[in-house]
Q: What sequence folds into this?
């Protein structure tokens, strides 16, 4: 009888040979070149696009760009029949654009590679010689590379950007968050994130990109959501699902979009009157969390916004609570930006209303007051009990701090690396102090 080590080595050798010799059949390989005419239909971000053959209704892979000469490989959702907006729900090369004549290659070794015209590799699935024999786009919007047993070796669902599709998960040991897009023209990571943590899902905003910071590390991300999607037991994953509601004669009366943790229970995101499998949960450029549902049978207006986290109509929190509601700075009331705080008092708001530019520090720093306002930092982040004088001194010594909030009745202090939307309230003891 062979020794155990020889036995194990033999089967390991057989497994290794089987995996490394598996190849993609020639008729399944492809090379798509970024060239030719642009498509005629309206897309998100006013993007131009060139469709690729990889298609699974209502999804299609495409080259798209929002800035001339800078292209992304993206997954488009929507059909030409409905004549509705195409939405971009996934990007392969986020923040790493390619040029004209770039190539997307699926080769016989099972690797999917994005290359520039000069051959420079910009992105790949990293699946060379791992047993991949094919690629397909599933009806739920998941691009998968699979082996001869049909097992997924790689899937786009494991690499979300700012959007979750139904049946897609965020996991403790895998993709843990969605990150907003920087702007309609800029496809790099933005400052907002929707993160799976030990207590469930939370929304965070990072200090403004480009901000001068003290020391090597920037200020930590700041919470700007309530406990709507939090749990008491730490989840390993949370999945975006579509579940049928009450049924009559086995016909559901409605469908529920849910965030479902593996620890049990669920968070209802929205109720929809029809099958909502073709729904997405999107962390918008603004930082708002929104669900859109695509109803394929209709010829026009196929998209419906079925959930909005920050909204005065049916949101979890009012519109003014969205940090970006009034841009970089503004006083918000009933979802309207009504004033711009200045050293001389409140004036009419417009998009040019901005906080002081960092970095201003030292004993000579001065502040102006905005009385009767609140903001997401004191609402969702724990303040420190101290005197007003010490609170001002603390902010004055921090390059990151553009102002601070002080609640007189509780002597609580919050330094603010960002200001954004300030909600008008009747409590005059809640005051914002902004650096001059």
A:
């Amino acid at each position: 009888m062979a020794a155990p080590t020889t036995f194990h080595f033999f089967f390991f050798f057989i497994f290794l040979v089987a995996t490394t010799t598996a190849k993609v059949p020639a008729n399944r390989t492809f090379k798509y070149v970024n060239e030719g005419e642009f498509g005629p239909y309206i897309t998100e971000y006013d993007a131009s696009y060139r469709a690729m053959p990889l298609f699974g209704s209502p999804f299609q892979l495409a080259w798209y760009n929002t800035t001339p000469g800078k292209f992304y490989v993206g997954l488009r959702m929507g059909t030409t029949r409905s004549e509705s907006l195409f939405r971009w729900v996934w990007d392969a090369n986020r923040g790493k654009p390619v040029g004209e004549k770039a190539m997307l290659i699926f080769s016989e070794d099972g690797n999917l590679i994005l290359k520039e015209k000069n051959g420079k590799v910009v992105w790949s699935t990293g699946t060379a010689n791992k047993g991949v024999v094919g690629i397909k786009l599933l009806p739920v919007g998941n691009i998968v590379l699979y082996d001869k047993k049909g097992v997924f070796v790689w899937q786009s669902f494991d690499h979300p950007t700012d959007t979750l599709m139904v049946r897609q998960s965020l996991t403790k040991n895998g993709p843990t968050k969605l990150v907003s897009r920087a702007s309609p023209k800029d496809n790099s990571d933005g400052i907002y994130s929707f993160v799976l943590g030990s207590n469930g899902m939370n929304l965070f905003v990072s200090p403004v990109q480009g901000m001068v910071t003290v020391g090597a590390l920037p200020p930590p991300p700041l919470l700007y959501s309530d406990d709507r999607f939090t749990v008491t037991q730490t989840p390993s994953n949370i999945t975006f699902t579509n579940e049928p509601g009450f049924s009559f004669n086995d016909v559901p009366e409605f469908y529920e979009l849910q965030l479902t943790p593996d620890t049990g229970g669920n968070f209802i995101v929205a109720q929809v009157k029809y099958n909502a499998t073709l729904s997405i949960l999107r962390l918008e450029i603004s930082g708002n969390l929104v669900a859109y549902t695509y109803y394929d049978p209709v010829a026009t207006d196929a998209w419906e916004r079925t959930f909005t986290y920050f909204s005065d109509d049916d949101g979890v929190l009012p519109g003014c609570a969205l940090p970006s509601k009034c841009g970089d700075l503004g006083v918000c009331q009933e979802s309207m930006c009504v004033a711009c705080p200045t050293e001389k008092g409140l004036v009419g708001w417009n998009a040019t209303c901005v906080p002081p530019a960092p970095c201003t520090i030292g004993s000579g720093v001065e502040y102006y007051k905005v009385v009767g306002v609140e903001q997401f930092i004191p609402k969702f982040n724990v303040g420190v009990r101290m005197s007003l004088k010490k609170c001002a001194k603390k902010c004055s010594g921090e390059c990151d701090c553009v102002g601070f909030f002080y609640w007189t009745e509780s002597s609580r202090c919050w330094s603010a690396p960002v200001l954004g939307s300030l909600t008008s309230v009747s409590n005059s003891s809640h005051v914002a102090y902004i650096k001059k």
In short: The chain has three helices and 35 strands. The helical segments are 4-21, 376-380, 388-396.
